[in-house]
Amino acid sequence: MKVAIQGIKGSNHYKALTELFDVDHVEVEECSTFQRLVSSVVTGESQKAIMAIENSIAGSILPNYRLILDYNLQITAEYYLNISHNLVALPGQELADLVQVKSHQMALHQCSYFFTDQTHIHLIEDVDTALPAQVIAQQQISGVGALVPKGTAELFNLNVIAEDVQNNSLNETRFVVIEKQANLSDDVNKATLQFEIAHESGSLARVLNLMADHHLNLSKIQSIPIPNNIWKYAFIVDVSFQNELHFQKAFKAISAISINPTCVGQYKNGKS
Ligand SMILES: O=C(O)C(=O)C[C@]1(C(=O)O)C=C[C@@H](O)C=C1
C-alpha cells in the first residue's frame, strides 16, 4: 500500500504516518504540496493520504477542507499529534547569528510569539518543517535556522538552539486520512458532514436542533466560502455519536432541510 504525506521524513506528517501505519509495510509518497497529495489519491497513485486539517493554536487549514470537498474524497480516520517545534541550525550557530528561519507556514504561525522580539530574523515559508533543515545540513548554510519536530535535528546532524518555541505547550495538530472510498466499517463513532442552507433566519438553528434531537454531539462547526457563490458559505460539522443508526437518521433529516448535503466521512473518534 502507498500512503501520501505532505513533506519529507522528519516532518510532522511523517511522524503521524509512523504512528498510524507500520512504516515497514507501506510505501511513502512525499508530496511537496497538499494539492499534489490529493492528486496522488485521485489518480490512484496512492491509496491513502495523511493530511493536516487543523491545529489547536493556528486553527483550521481551510484550503485543505476545500481540496477534500472539490475532489469528493472521504475522511476515513483521524489522528491527533502533539506538536513541538525546536529551532535548529548548524552546530556552532546561535540565535543572534540567524538572519532567516524557514519552516512550514502553519509551524511559523504556531511560533509567532517567540519571534516577535527577534527582529533580526526574517521568517520564510517553506514546503514543510523538515526540508529546510535537510537543505541547511546538506549545503552547510550558516545564518539560517529551521523549526522542526523533536528528533529531526538528530536526523540531519543539526543543533537545537531553542526547544519548544511554540506559543503554547498544549499544541496539537489533527490529521485526517483521506481516501477515494468511504470507511464502511461499523466501528465508527464520528462523522464529518457538509451542507449549505437557505439564507434565511433560523435555517442553521433548525439543522443544529436536528442534531440535538438525534443525540449527535457537535464537536466542530466550520464555515467555508462557496466558490462561484460570492459571500455565501457552506458549513462543515464534526459530530460524534454512540449509535450509527442515530447518525444515519440525523443525516437523512438534515438532508431534507439543507442544500447539497454530503457525508465527508465516517471514522473512529481520535480522542476517545
Ligand atoms: O511541515 C510539517 O512538519 C508538516 O507536517 C506540516 C504541518 C501542517 O501542515 O500543519 C503539520 C503539523 C504542524 O502543525 C505544522 C506543519
TrEMBL record:
The Prephenate dehydratase domain, residue ranges: 2-180
Class in the EC hierarchy, top level: lyase
Chaperone keyword on record: no
Protein name (database record): prephenate dehydratase
Pathway: Amino-acid biosynthesis; L-phenylalanine biosynthesis; phenylpyruvate from prephenate: step 1/1
Sequence ranges assigned to domain ACT in this UniProt record: 192-272
Biological source species: Psychroflexus longus
UniProt KW Endoplasmic reticulum keyword: no
CDD domains the UniProt entry points to: ACT_CM-PDT (cd04905), PBP2_Ct-PDT_like (cd13631)
EC number: 4.2.1.51
PANTHER family, per database record: PREPHENATE DEHYDRATASE P PROTEIN, PREPHENATE DEHYDRATASE-RELATED
Keywords: Amino-acid biosynthesis, Aromatic amino acid biosynthesis, Lyase, Phenylalanine biosynthesis
Reaction it catalyzes: prephenate + H(+) = 3-phenylpyruvate + CO2 + H2O
